[in-house]
Specification:
Layout (H helix, E strand, L loop, with lengths): L1 E2 L11 E3 L5 E9 L5 E4 L2 H11 L17
Antiparallel strand pairs: 1-4, 2-3, 3-4
């Protein structure tokens, strides 16, 4: 997914929610193509990669308890 700013350095890693409030990805700010753009990782694919390559047994997502908004 390609996102237009306002993502700024320091926002990377923030959760990106769908209309139902489910986290679907993680913001990646300042992509190189096109320069200055923002992107969104696919949370499912990122988790699957981490489970396969991290060496952390039982790595999984857990439901959060608090939200934060600006």
């Amino acid at each position: 997914m390609y996102l237009l700013p306002p993502g700024v350095p320091g926002d990377s890693g923030g959760g990106f929610m769908d209309a139902q409030g489910r986290i679907v990805g993680v913001l990646v700010s300042l992509n190189s193509i096109p320069p200055g753009s923002n992107g969104l990782s696919d949370l499912g694919r990122a988790l699957a990669y981490a489970q396969k390559h991290s060496g952390l047994k039982g790595l999984q997502l857990v439901k959060g308890t608090e939200t934060f908004s600006r």
